[in-house]
Design goal:
Four copies of one chain form a homotetramer.
Chain A lengths: L2 H10 L12 E6 L3 H4 L10 H17 L3 E6 L9 H6 L26 E5 L10 H7 L4 E7 L1 H15 L2 E10 L3 H14 L2 E3 L1 H11 L1
């Protein structure tokens, strides 16, 4: 069975319908922190092109004056607030409070008034007040960029859908350490939870919002 | 890069650590409903062997007298309670209240006292009181079987981890309409959120619980 | 210290600010079921006037064509899905599936397309997909009526605020078995979480929405 | 109708059943911050005796080596992450990041390894990973102390019950700026959601846990 067959099979089963972007988007930048960006980190993911794409989208979002939200991951010493997830992934030690691997990159970091959500789990919605914040701002659409596609990006996109927001996952602005999980997760997201869209489509969308 | 390389790469990055099953498990059977099981349904998934494996695990769970939870999906006419998810997936029409495609199979259905969670989204935890129920019963471990691996099973396993339960995903007892998303999602689950275990290991575990 | 002093003291501490109703309200009717309405029920609460007020608001909401949501409470035999709450309150036995005390009153019940949320806990948001449904419909304001003020109404109003919706609690359309908890809870709600408003103000608001 | 009548009326309606403390408690100290403790603060609540009682319970909890959790409230400049709640209560300005009114008192503050939950809403569970943390530690019971009874304490106790934990609210260790909302909320909590217990009973309980 070829890849085309898989898409055809899903279409026949009525997956992959189109979601229409709303009028009040926000932008989220998931976990663009040094652990994934610094070549000396064990988590270094080689995602420079996603980083650059996200930078261009961030500029457009600021120009359009839509809400911008950054996430990072921060644990207490010992990781009790990471529960089962912290026990599962040794790599999460990089995010214990004070570790510079958890810092934002100086070239992609929050400006005054932009929200930072410090999360403990994969989804930016889980165990955070993100959904409440977006609802209180009457946001209806979430533009999703970040790292990594098979982890926090997917979990965030699935939860965006579940919470009632239209998730727009920007293909060029999400990245992973390996192309196979990256592609497999974009396939699932487009089939079941989100619109996977191009950077150029998002830039055009933001131009029309502003 | 071969599959072995991918596993090695993840191990070097410290993913895929082992989670140890607890003393108080519950079993969940995710969405074993006619829509996936009836060959005439557009959602028919050819997952007979997962269905049979889940049946064997259910018998062992009943013998061990651990809590057993079934899920299904039920929407109001029009699907307003399915929100964005219902808009995305045309196939969810099969689960509007009254459609026999949403029924459990007669050979795998709840007995007196076993809980049925009717959910609206992919995760059995999302928008339901499942986490509260498990916590109130002091469950610490969730044995996960069901359909489909790339959808509701993964979402449920990720949320089990996020909610503080040890997720044990039974390889033979979860199924999908295509082996590629099935395998890709089991890879992600083992790397980041859950223990993917064999049916025989679960049967031995349940024998020791009882 | 008189009641007036209490209000003055709270105002000095900067509680009780005004929330402004939004443009996209929904109406919720919390637990208007026979257990509270039937004089033979141990839970009978003598809340006929709240029931009648809610009926008038429901008519106006239907005329304005805003979303209408009814809640009830339904437990599995044995109440496992009620967790700690079911253990605490013996009276919740009235809501085990099949007990007619859990039925809606024939003179205040859902019509085609109006949503019914079956909940297990006090808050209509807790363990349900209500927040997601409202967000997916881009609702920004929740008009709250129902029973009882000190229980499910308060819990629902607090959660509406926490989830990012403007809660408008209609004074005449919420009721309790005793005026003291009723008054005390309306005081807290107005001080910290919601606008407690009159029926006439809501009727005027709905007239302007339609 | 006298207060005694109210209790009798509730008992006849089968409210106020007893919840039995479990084997694995944690202690939470809700919002013991300078805003309520400093006589110069507009939120100063005159709750010295609750503060002292909580101090005694904290010592006993540390001796018993049970998990200890402190909460505070922290908002971004402008309060976007406080949503509707921040708009409602002007007093919450005291908790914008950097304001010393949000600091813990030096005589009741976290020691190494004790968890701090920074919340945005009344309930310590809402928009935080508290429930997950407690579940991952297999906690079954939550000893609740803090400020204020009619606000964050009640919301936290209701949510503890809803999440599946036995809430033990310590009468002497919770406080409010006025005795009337304090008493009214303890009445509701005992009737519907929690065990309201004495400090001496909690100290004896903790002695037996250790």
């Amino acid at each position: 069975m070829t890849e085309k067959d898989l898409t055809a099979d899903y279409a026949a089963a009525q997956f992959g319908g189109a979601l229409h972007p709303g009028q009040r988007p926000a932008l989220i930048l998931v976990d663009f922190v040094m652990a994934y960006l610094d070549p000396k980190s064990p988590l270094y993911a080689g995602v420079e092109s996603a980083f650059e794409s996200a930078g261009r989208i961030l500029s457009a979002a600021r120009k359009a004056e839509i809400p911008v939200i950054f996430t990072n991951v921060v644990y207490t010493e010992g990781g009790k607030d990471g529960g089962v997830f912290f026990r599962k992934i040794g790599a999460l030690q990089a995010f214990v409070k004070g570790n510079p691997m958890g810092d934002f990159s100086p070239s992609l970091e929050p400006e005054g008034g932009e929200l930072v959500i410090s999360k403990h789990y994969a989804s930016a919605f889980f165990g955070t007040s993100l959904a409440s914040t977006l609802t209180a701002m009457t946001v209806d659409t979430l533009i999703i960029t970040g790292l990594s596609t098979s982890g926090c990006v997917r979990a965030t996109a699935v939860d965006a859908c579940q919470h009632g927001f239209i998730p727009l996952v920007v293909r060029e602005a999400v990245g992973d350490r390996d192309p196979r999980p990256h592609d497999a997760n974009l396939f699932d997201l487009q089939a079941k939870y989100a619109e996977v869209v191009s950077e150029s489509r998002i830039l055009a969308y933001l131009e029309n919002i502003s």
